[in-house]
Structure prediction request, 109 residues.
Amino acid sequence: MATVGVISSVSMIYFISTGIRPDANYIIVMALFEVIIIVSVFSNFGQTIYDESIKLNDVLYKCPWIYWNNKNRKMLIIMLISTKPLEVSCYKLVTLDHQILKKVSLNFS
Prediction:
C-alpha cells in the first residue's frame, strides 16, 4: 500500500511540476480529488457496516434469554457463536474502514 501511495504521489508531482499542458494539471488535480472522495466514501460505508454488525452482537448478548424456552436458548447460542463482524474489503486485499484513511493519509504526508 505504501508503494502505491509513493508511486502515485511522485507521478502526480512530476506531471504538475513539468507543466506539459496547463489544462492537464487541472485534470490530474481533479482526478486526485475524485479518488480522495471515493476512498473516503467507501471507507465510511465500510466502517458503518462494521459498527452495525458489532451492535447486532451486543444486542444478542443483552437478550433476556433466561425467560425463553430451551429451543430459543439454543438458537441464541448458535447465533452468538456464528456472528462475526462484517468487513467490506476489496478482493480481500484491503479492508475498507477508517484504518485505510489513516494509512492513505500517512502515505501522502
User: Anything to note?
Assistant: The radius of gyration is 22 Å. Residues 53 and 84 are 8 Å apart (CA to CA).
